[in-house]
Amino acid sequence: MKKYVFLFAVLLLLTSGSRGQQGKVIDRIIEIGKTDNRTMHHLDVISNRFGGRLVGSDAYENAALWCASEFRKWGMEVIMDEAGSVPVGFNRGPWFGRMLSDNGMILHFATPSYTSGTKGVQRGHVLLEPKNRQEFESMKGTLKGAWVLIGGKNDGWPVDFSEKADSARKVIITYNDSVGAINREIMRENYMNRDKAPKETIPLKSAPALFYREMREAGILGVIQSSELPIRALYDRKNISEMTFEKLPTVCDIKLDENQYAVIEKMVKERKFFLLEFDIRNHFKPGPVKYHNVIGVIKGTQYPDEYVMMGGHLDAFDVATGGVDDGSGITPAMEAARLITAAGGKPRRSIMVCLWAAEEFGLLGSKHWVETNMEKLPRISNYFNRDGGPTVASGLAVPESMYEDFEKVCRPLNEINPDFPFRLSKNTNPPRPKPTTAGGSDHAYFAMNGVPTLAFETPDSKGYNFSYQEIWHTENDLYTKSIPEYQEHTAVVTAVVVYGLANLDHLLSRSGLYQEEEKK
User: Fold this and answer.
1) Separation in Å, CA 428 to CA 189, 318, 325, 512, 513
2) Tell me: the pLDDT tens digits for 327-350?
3) Is 284 within a domain?
């Protein structure tokens, strides 16, 4: 009997010692997070020193290497996970434009990635695009060296010049040609019967750059489309797979401030003479250009092959600097890892910080990791993905089966900052079906495979009037749009929760998470 009492006492001592050590690490995480929080420093480096981190760009590669070096500096293992490649690389340089006339102005515009720049400073007259063959034939002699205004509203994507798009244009042109013939007859009849009420002509169908290929062959400098503000600019997703360094876009695709577009369009219709001048430095490099997920690992001391994961996507569209999408997601995760290591944390299971590649190109980096690490998925307690803006982590709703574990882990969170009380709640909704299609961020392929992807509730609790639509893939996605106190607090909360989960003596239960789990 004494033997069992002794063993129980030893076990109790070891357990209490472990809890005491964990409490000291948590206290130290909070202390460092309050006095030496470097979340905004990380964001400054990746968004302002490297800039927009487009997959295939030098900025992405440089940011990936820097993040890896930081992980190593903090004592973490680093995995540079090759996730894919693009056939050519793209680097964006400065761009500038102006209207040369009596009422000239500096032009506010952007171009989608993987589209052509100018050949130095290029100056030209301006035309309205033709809608049918007759209009094209009547103006084809003036197309060489012209900037052409095209219809439609910019949605971020460039004009599609694939064969499929050309075929769709031909159908519209054929229709417009037939309507044009009918309209000419109507106009002739109206002229002959001027004493009668005129017949209405039939409107032509409209699509941006109907004669794109013909205008390009005629020597236009570029096309210009109206854009709402802030200007959104994405990439040439329809044609990038067919690009080679010998087969690159040759015509500029300019998305112009809608107010300036309206002024220029009016002047063209009034047949006023003026010129537009652009200098757009869009540069390509030979490929293929590989891209990598950057994964930092704090190795578990007891369960090294079990994991708590956190992260977001490192890539960003380069019309701005990715200061929010997703700089505001990855930098609190990076800082959470630094806080854990700086506090002397030795988690029982491994902690992984995942900076995914090519999220903006279709979740390619996280998809690749999931598909090549299927054996790890049952051993992931949770993957925390952050990709919703620089608001503050201040709550969690969890299934009942996880509530007791999270209640223990989250206890210290209300000691960090009284401005941001933390609310843990039970998710009382029925278990949802496991998703069968990918959603909008890097948690998607994890969730499709049954991995818990609980995410923090992140309100704008102090009312900073943050608008995700204002920055989403636009020129406003900047470092200055992130909110420092939200970002810094989120890093500390993330560190405390991730470290706490990594020190449980078991993985989180998946009961009640998905319907499929309930049926087993």
Assistant:
1) 72, 41, 31, 10, 11
2) 999 999 999 999 999 999 999 999
3) no
